[in-house]
Specification:
It is a single chain. This protein is an alpha/beta fold. 37% of the residues lie in helices and 19% in strands. Strands 3-2-1-4-5-6-9-10 form an 8-stranded mixed β-sheet, sandwiched between helices.
């Protein structure tokens, strides 16, 4: 599938690494084209033969999946600016609306989530999916922690869009866990709030830990 990633930071690089490992085409969109080119070059070196390149926003219409690998406020701006280009597309929100000054609360109302607010702001027909928000960039590049594949928790109201994101994760060696409708994005954001807060403690985990469902 054609995966367009909006963003050029560490999470964009981690998700792109998994998408390329799954054999998908990756296009990178950044506010700074030079950063998109630099990331594309680094990914090409990491995955020889990979189909990865920078792209412009107007090209997003050819995407199968659009990943918003940017903070929540920037994601709101993207869905507003891209407008009808996202209609009918599977759009993945990876953001966590965390109060980064304290790591003790979310910045969205208690009855909402970043993903739900983005869905409301997006053009009609946009299929918003919450995914990859409980993973860290370093562990995404590795694809595993402690010898186990990363779990990717997925929430969305459109079943076909959820399945598409699950396929993307699985093809890259990750374990997709579909939790249900987009209303569950709130719980996923809350889980990652705690996960992030643990990294700030003295014993920390170096931002390389993972949340994993394990059963006999």
């Amino acid at each position: 599938m054609r995966v367009f990633i909006v963003g050029t930071g560490n999470m964009a690089g981690g998700i792109a690494t998994r998408a390329l490992a799954g054999g998908h085409t990756v296009r990178l969109i950044g506010t700074d084209p030079a950063k998109a080119t630099t990331l594309a070059d680094a990914l090409s070196e990491r995955t020889p033969g990979a189909d990865v390149a920078p792209a412009v926003p107007d090209a997003v219409g050819s995407a199968d999946v659009v990943v918003l690998a940017v903070p929540f406020d920037a994601a709101k701006q993207v869905v507003t600016e891209y407008g009808d280009q996202l209609a009918g597309k599977t759009v993945v929100d990876i953001s966590n609306p965390v109060d980064f000054s304290t790591f003790d609360s979310l910045t969205v109302p208690a009855d909402s989530s970043a993903a739900q607010q983005l869905a409301e702001a997006a053009a009609p027909g946009t299929h918003m999916v919450k995914a990859f928000n409980t993973t860290f960039a370093g562990s995404l590049v590795a694809g595993e922690v402690g010898g186990l594949p990363l779990d990717v928790f997925i929430a969305g109201d459109n079943a076909a869009a959820r399945d598409q994101v699950a396929e993307l994760a699985a093809s890259g060696g990750l374990n997709p866990v579909v939790v249900g409708g987009l209303r569950h994005a709130r719980e996923l954001e809350g889980i990652q709030l705690l996960h992030m807060a643990l990294q700030t403690r003295p014993e920390g985990h170096g931002w390389m830990s993972a949340i994993k469902i394990v059963a006999p």
